[in-house]
Queue: 4 jobs
Job 1
Amino acid sequence: MLLSAVSCTQQQKQFLISGTTQGSYFRIAYIALNEDTLLISKVNALLHTFDNTFSLWNDSSMLVRVNRNENVNVSPLFTDLFEKSQIMSERTNGYFDITVKPLVSLYGFAAEKRSKNFFSEEEINNILRYVGYSRVRIKNGCVEKDLPQIHLDFNAIAQGYCSDLVAEILLENGYKNFLIDIGGEIVASGKKPNGEIWKIGIEKPAATASDKQSTITEVPLTDCSIVTSGNYRKYFEIDGKRFSHTINPHTGRPASDGILSATVVASAGWEADALATAIACMDKDTAIAYIDRNNISCMIIYDSLQNMCVWQSEQFNNNKFNVK
């Protein structure tokens, strides 16, 4: 009886799995009585598979081989994320689009060296011939393109999707209280060891890429995902004008219409990731109308006459996160 009473009073603690993946960091906090080495192995195996499937910097990854137009039978993992991406392209009227890769390369946000002579309408229109989610599909296990120059880039949805897959591993292994952060794409479940709900800080947009991080607010989060897409850390300047890494697939130009960041809360990481990217591509008025029309839990921070302004949807403002 005494031994039983002692075992029942054992306190669960927070354990951390961390490292680098997909060109960024990952941190996974899970609540347990003891560290789970088998769980760590499963998570690392998933991250390794994910890199071998979707990395643009791994010359032998499945995605790179697809972009080289090799004869590749894509995996169920690749197919699932491709189909989710196409769903989000439809939902966002093409503001989210995985065929944006040729534009990413043109502006030098991929591995290619940036050119300083790419702003002519002729050059952009030439590249736009290879952009458009309706120009690519999967048939009989292979990626079919309308043109061989069409290249795919999953970076605006992959980390959110990966966070979801890690969450599935944790749940399948009996863990209900955890926080997953893969490059800023976050999935939360349950609570912290002290019973409090997880709180996620939203970064205040910085004036320059080198500025220290600071938070503008904190959001309580459980059993859902949160992702912020920002236009203020990754950019370049030419003649004093700043160009964001977020590229509008419709115009072929970097987003430059005032939205500094878009934070979305949704039931799935892949959904929040894609929505945040799409909204960050829009102008402010289009974004607000889209968010309201689709009942999205979102906060946007935008620049108005060099003043930082914050707008929140009703769902976000009331912590009604529109989750299942």
Job 2
Amino acid sequence: MKLAPIFSAGLALFVTACGLDVGGSVARGDNYETSVREADEARKAGNLDSAIPLYGRALQANPEGIEAKLGLGQSYLSLGAGDEAAAQFRDVLAKRSKDPAARRGLAAALLYMGQPVLAEQQLEVALQADARDYHALNTLGVCLDMQGRHAEAQAKYQQGIDVAPDYLPLRSNMGFSLAISGQPQEAIKWLAPIATAQGADARVRQNLAFAYAMAGDLTNALQVSRRDLDEPSAQRQLSYFMQLKSLPPEARSAEMRNNSYFFPQSGRGA
């Protein structure tokens, strides 16, 4: 059965908190340092139209600038441009093979390119270097969810939560994974407390709406969806949720993986 998804507000897994943690800038000449600083500020404010040319200016001043390449890669991720992001992160890794932000960034880019197995391999390398890297654990959970390996994904999210209990994407992803795999009441327990937390966005709320729908609570599902969607969109999304609810867990999981909205655009960067 071919379903027609409507996800205007972005029901999805987070790759990272609000993008990748690319770290700060290191001075390599005033032009470079100033451009990177301004680019970082623009990217974190969501102004990618300014951030990308500013990173380009920084790289003109210092073509080998690691910080600019990381920031540019993150900007491309925010646009969903996996190929362009991967090129930046690979360039960093060619010069600094142990850079954790570049490793995570490359994994995220591979996910956007529809290559979760290759992304998983990158994250395993990152976790060999630092088993407590909760950003990597979070993204690895996404890789596993995208392969339909939900129990394994949930175990990775839990490992990350044990390290960083306040890291919102881990909790949101845990809830979404539970909802997909047929455990909506458990999903609600994870999602309801964070849906109104500082830093929660439409993705968290629509994940909660999805969990309510999977639990058969259509009133709350619609009420939560309306916080980000107009009425027609909220009704269409609820209809899609109910189609998903009617499927067996394996078929539901496969449908979600085939949904182009399953995997989010990266946010504004940490």
Job 3
Amino acid sequence: MSGLPWARRIAAVASLGDETRRKLFAYVASEDAPVSRNDAAAALGLPRSTASFHLDRLVHDGLLAVEFRKLGGREGPGSGRPAKLYKAGVPEVAASVPERNYDLAAELLVSAIEESTTAGVPARDALVRAAYERGQAAARGQGAAAFAELLAEEGYRPEDDGEGGLMLLNCPFHRIAEGHAVVCAMNGAFLAGAAAGCGIAAQGVEALAVEELRKTGAAAPGQCCARIRPV
């Protein structure tokens, strides 16, 4: 579910705090085919109106998706209205406060290990390349004006630093970045790739070790160790 904006992911997780919705989501997600309101109501022993209300709320919160299809194989005039069917809208649900993106880190690290193993290149080089390419892909088709918005979508919480650059108030990789400079290198490469994808010079991204920034007091705990500086 990481493709959804952070606020929507938080809302989706909050929606599952309701026991009935949690059970309905688990039921629909476990079925091989889309289910009707009658199916869901019968499976959980709920009134049809109750099942319908909660199913539609799950759709609103991005957890379920809807399709309309005539059942029983009948088509054409007189075959009745298409039935409203529900299916899982996401394979899984995850969110964190502050926002983190450990899934992305895991994907990039695994990709780097595989390339290092098969091609014999240093794992760090493979990781930096994979992160740069992922950043480029995330920004593809977007212009320089969309760069800050892209960083916000990725969880960095960018803010104007008053000098023509951006401060990144949140580190999406905070826990694993602590004590592991290679994660900072991965982060810097991702940001450089995103900058390049938006048509901004990659030299405008400066990544430093978390420990060095903290020693100088330049970054607060949880803050990204990178700065976006004008070239």
Job 4
Amino acid sequence: MINMTENEIVAILERRLSEHRFQHSLAVAQAARELAQIFGEDTDLAYKTGLLHDYAKGIPAPELIAIANDHDLIENEIEKKVPDLLHAPVGAWQLRIELGIEDPAVLEAVKVHTMGSLQMSKLDKIIFLADMIEPGRDYPGQQRLDCLARRDLDQAMLYGLDATIRYCLDQGRILHPRTIMVRNHFLEMINDTNQITEQ
């Protein structure tokens, strides 16, 4: 539960984020609401979480690292080399400290929206995927991911993680071990489900 109205959140974000990031957040919120409707989740909570998912975007890298260091939010040294990865856990921490949001479901969805986790709730998957399918994005396979996300969250997670890994490889970027671990987790889970179905 988030004890703020949509309008109150929008007003905060409009002051805090760049115009581009603000529009992205509105689009992610709308995509999250649509996915929540399809999969029987709380549409209001999904929308507000979508709005807030990039709360720490735009914070300079040294400041992200400093906040993460001070509050034990760094999981792997790679995050210091790619500080943008820290905007998710730092954002979750700031939402609790600055806006008083205590809902663990919301904080976790914000925290894991860039790399996922091994125990993702439906809301976690919805925010992760909404961030990737919102119409302002433009990359190969986006339309396919959008279709998948509206049919099967787990299949969409695997496809989305594969796309992320492929992009990092193509760009010569460092891959975070958690991204690979989460991708393998979804692959194994889907393969296990398929084997059970075939028996």
